[in-house]
UniProtKB/TrEMBL annotation:
Pfam families: adh_short_C2
Any one GO MF annotation of this record: acetoacetyl-CoA reductase activity
Enzyme class label: oxidoreductase
Protein name: Acetoacetyl-CoA reductase
Gene from which this protein is expressed: phbB
């Protein structure tokens, strides 16, 4: 039977490319989304991938949603924690609401997504966790104290989960995309975006599919000895 994969924020942007790649790899895929019903319905129509609506920032909703996915598709063996938001502002202008929204979705959302599936993975002796972090969690970013904190936090999460899960056949890894051509990056003011592209040695934004291919590898049996690692996919913009 095909393994079941859950991709949070899986109907748009990088998440949509990941959902499609995992479906093409033969997994049963469930993609979550937070609010955009229209985009999710279109995505399901186009791809045949089932979508589920819940707020990853809310533990009870995540747990209930995950139970529904498992009832529909079987035990979740692969989790791609991809859902994320930005609320950019220079620190002196950043409000507590902007801080909390990003922490709740991007960081607590990873806990809320992985924690409910973790006991089942331990029992079955297999699991793959991939967290989509960011170049900005590695290097920091002007106007992203909140976002960078969550993306750096992702790396602490996977390194700790790797140590806890290894003896149970579970791996936890992260991908740090650089600037990828998604709505999130296109929302950056054009002048700022152009100056960012100027800092990318590849001379271009990345494509969502370039991140999806990294996920395909990390969740495969071929990657069973890769645990607690970070793949940087940023066109040469930053080296750790
Ligand atoms: N580095 C240094 N200085 C910068 C800067 C930067 N990257 N960006 C802006 N500034 C400066 C401005 O030039 C301005 O300077 P002066 O006051 O001397 O003129 C100062 O900062 C403040 O500018 P504003 O008052 O115009 O700031 P604002 O309150 O209007 O906020 C902004 C504007 C939110 C910072 C906007 O410029 C922006 O969105 N910047 C992009 C931030 C960014 O790169 N976000 C990444 C999004 S993509 C993503 O997150 C995906 C991923 O994982 C990679």
């Amino acid at each position: 039977m095909a393994r079941t994969a859950l991709v949070t924020g899986g109907s748009r942007g990088i998440g949509a490319a990941i959902s499609k790649a995992l479906k093409a790899d033969g997994y049963s895929v469930a993609a979550t989304y937070a609010g955009n019903d229209e985009a999710a319905a279109k995505f399901t129509e186009e791809t045949g991938i089932k979508t589920y609506k819940w707020n990853v920032a809310d533990y009870d909703s995540s747990k209930a949603g995950i139970e529904q996915v498992e009832a529909d598709l079987g035990p979740i063996e692969i989790v791609v924690a991809n859902a994320g938001i930005t609320r950019d502002a220079p620190f002196h202008k950043m409000t507590p609401d902007q801080w909390n929204a990003v922490i709740d979705t991007n960081l607590t959302g990873v806990f809320n997504t992985v924690h409910p599936v973790w006991p089942g993975m331990r029992e079955r002796g297999f699991g793959r966790i991939v967290v989509i972090s960011s170049i900005n969690g590695q290097k920091g970013q002007f106007a992203q104290v909140n976002y960078a904190a969550t993306k750096a936090g992702d790396l602490g999460i996977i390194k700790s989960l790797a140590q806890e899960g290894a003896s149970k056949g579970i791996t936890a890894n992260a991908i740090c995309p650089g600037y990828i051509a998604t709505e999130m990056v296109m929302a950056v003011p054009e002048k700022v975006r152009e100056s960012i592209i100027g800092m990318i040695p590849a001379g271009r934004l990345g494509e969502p599919e370039e991140i999806a291919r990294c996920v395909s590898f990390l969740v495969s049996d071929d990657a069973s000895f890769i645990n607690g690692s970070t793949i940087s996919a940023n066109g040469g913009q930053f080296f750790v």
